[in-house]
Amino acid sequence: MGAAERLAELGETLPEVPAPAAAYVPVAMAGGLVMTAGQLPLVDGSLPLTGRVGDQVELDEAQDLARRAALNVLAVAASVADGDLDRVRIVKLTVFVASAPDFVEQHLVANGASNLLGDVLGDNGVHARSAVGVAALPLGAPVEIEAVVEVLDA
Hints:
By secondary structure, the protein is α+β, with helices and mostly antiparallel strands. The chain has helices spanning 3-9, 59-79, 106-121, and strands at residues 27-30, 33-36, 88-98, 128-134, 143-151. It has a single domain, classed as CATH 3.30.1330.40. The protein is 29% helix and 23% strand. The chain is globular.
């Protein structure tokens, strides 16, 4: 079963590549690697929740938001792989979590993204990762994700 079929089996569809919110592009290539811009958990152009995790946003909600942001990462990656998710390998993921001062479970928030990528891409979704707590993110987003991706030969 291919990645697109696994995505559908999870009840998900690949979203449109989100439009940049400022002066940048969604993706840049360097050698054989693709770097995505930070992806927010936008759904149809809007954030479903805003605020800091541990204050306004609960852990399970933040995990779902990380999953949403990971779908946007996949959309960006697919855009440079001719739409073929089977050509996408996630090398490194950085998950930024807008965190209340005493919130220390950023790694658990990041699991929402990592689990989705593994479920969809299989071995190509296994990656190195950093989970970073920050005071605030653009537009009040609780989560932002950027990735280093390899586009495999067809």
